[in-house]
């Protein structure tokens, strides 16, 4: 009965509609049919494209134009105003809106497209299609009525046309996200530029240009767009200072300028009426303190300022923002306590405070944010056990407690956090076994437990329970892994696997079926023998990083011509016993290290195809022959080149023949001949040049003094000859801190003008210990890969040749020993107050030891032996309270040896071969009373009297204060390499999340 009544109602309604449609009195209410010319234009537009489901990325995409039919196809009743995605004016019938987002459109478009015949268009949305890298047609300027234009994520290419600026009625424009599959920006806004756009489109409310190459400053005219509510300028190459007045726009609710690493700025004092809801400044150089007035942003829902340079305290007012659901303060320089007022933010779903300088031991308020999905507390100095209050956060998907000082065992109650997809407990002090309950977290995708004190045996079959697991890190514990060969268990498909130092003795068999790995690290195990043939078949299309270093690998079961992973970026094979020819990575490789093996043969020409290399480490092998000249092609991308301790010969190839980023060149301990190529003068970024122990036959390369960043110059044990030419203002060596010219054939006077002008050697080190290194990074989907190349060198220090695997950036040294320098020691050396090592031994120097050497209060090693020095040892040298090694043997010195302080620690060998010397420690007593050391006031300017007995005792105990704090490393075998960095990049990574392209 109800159904019948409903049908009767529909019939009456239909009849009423027909009557109304035919009545003259209501004819004005009928929507006109679409115009034939516009219908035809739309159909021709449709026919110019293919329907391709891969052209759109939105899961809800569908082909809207598939239902568009002509009159012949659909009959006389066809009306384009009823077509999917078409909007018509109710009064005129003209097409005023075209909404074809995510419609599977694939093909090119140009100004002849019939789209531009739709001159009444007000709204045009072609986003999330594939326009095959077409330029935005200049005919877009014909659509003068446009108020809304969305061409985002549609593979448009090239310069944004000037004609677009004629669309003065635009209030919404979105050109964001036009990138290729590799992430390269396709659109650019140069001519016209951002300033031109802002000056012409003055009615804008929403402006989205994220991932458009703008490469300019942000024009101050943006602050004149009083109607602007949303501004998205993510990753546009912006630089300069952000105009602060933009923060004061009266309607601005969304502001995103993140991922512009050269954009600087500061936050203003905020007013109560500020409507800001979303503020994204991540990965910029915004700095200063967070103003207390940020608590006035009562509408703020999201604040993301990670990877900026903010300092100071986090204001407690941040905890009084009731709408805040997303807060990321990570990777800044905040200090002090984390304010307990954050407990008030009870609707937070994302909280990250990682990697700051907080003083934190516990967070008693943690656990009150019961809606949290993401919690990042990496590196905030948490101590004690893993807080049990986390059990209140039942919705947690990501929990990151890595790089703290958490102790105790991994609690079994973690299994109650059933929504966890990412658990990160890396680099703590956790101990005990991994609880089996952890393997009940069936939603886990990422599990990071590396660098703890975990022990026991991990059975691989337990991992088969974690079917969603994609990333697993168990490295650097005390674990043993029990593999299995069962074909029944289904092992999860991983993209990241780290099993460093897990006591593996063979390649795990389950790797045979891993075809999606991106990152594989098996370093520091006990894997012996050859790399099996099946390893070359795993993850061929996905692997980007492979680390097999620190094992006992001897070679390849089947030696491939080129390693097969065509996406590989990072390959470490060092610290093995690999034999045979040099393995060749694919051309995609950025970092390649195969140091300390037993490889032989020449560098094959195929290596020259690796034009993307950032670092190349081939040192400490038995490689021979000449360096291919084609390796100069590396200069553009290469940062670090280490070929030392091989048997290479011939001339050093021309380097830096094109613009380059080279910072490290180490060709030491080979058999290179000839001269230093003058093209090195083009290596304007060079910081570390090591050419020692070769057969280079040249004069001193004065012209290297033009390199503005050169810190280290090692030319030891070659055939450099002649006198060092006079100092020249164009060749100042302005940054030089370490120079080693020992064991050459140099003659003439010591270059006193150089000592006067080596300003970098006059600086004393600060309190913070840092090491000389070159830092860079490269990004891959899902990873930011830092590449930190530690500088290394070999130098004679305290009478022994020592290998410095890491060089302190405050270390300063001069070694001119083993030459034929003559004349006196210049007093100007006394101005180099940062010196830690001075070796002028085994020359023909004469005259007196200058008392100005007493000013070198940081000096730890002084060798003046085997010269023709005469006169007394200046008593001012006793004020060098860090001096551990002193040698003036085999000279013509006379008089009493100064007594006290460091001189009481030196043995006979420091003074032997000087018949005229007397006093302790020699057996010859002096005929007169020993001279007392001078008072501090008698020293030349620059000496210091601030050393108290504590510093003196430090000197007595070790002498080498820098050496005590940082040490030096002698050559050693096996896993000491894994604890330190061994002069190479730190092998770490930062995981990234995929962010929206618009903001």
List the helices and strands and how they pair.
Elements: H1 2-22, H2 36-47, E1 50-51, H3 71-74, E2 86-88, E3 95-99, E4 105-106, E5 123-125, E6 148-150, E7 158-159, E8 172-174, E9 187-188, H4 194-200, E10 206-208, E11 230-232, E12 239-241, E13 254-256, E14 262-265, E15 278-280, E16 285-289, E17 302-304, E18 309-313, E19 326-328, E20 333-336, E21 350-352, E22 357-358, E23 374-376, E24 383-384, E25 398-400, E26 405-408, E27 422-424, E28 429-432, E29 446-448, E30 453-459, H5 460-463, E31 471-473, E32 478-482, E33 496-498, E34 519-521, E35 528-531, E36 545-547, E37 552-556, E38 570-572, E39 579-580, E40 591-593, E41 598-601, E42 615-617, E43 622-625, E44 640-642, E45 647-651, E46 664-666, E47 671-674, E48 688-690, E49 695-696, E50 712-714, E51 721-723, E52 738-740, E53 745-749, H6 752-757, E54 773-780, E55 783-790, E56 793-797, E57 800-804, E58 813-815, E59 820-823, E60 837-839, E61 844-847, E62 861-863, E63 868-871, E64 885-887, E65 892-896, E66 916-918, H7 949-957, H8 961-966, H9 976-979, E67 990-991
Parallel strand pairs: 3-5, 5-6, 6-8, 7-9, 8-10, 10-11, 11-13, 12-14, 13-15, 14-16, 15-17, 16-18, 17-19, 18-20, 19-21, 20-22, 21-23, 23-25, 24-26, 25-27, 26-28, 27-29, 28-30, 29-31, 30-32, 31-33, 33-34, 34-36, 35-37, 36-38, 38-40, 39-41, 40-42, 41-43, 42-44, 43-45, 44-46, 45-47, 46-48, 47-49, ...
Antiparallel strand pairs: 1-4, 2-3, 54-55, 55-67, 56-57
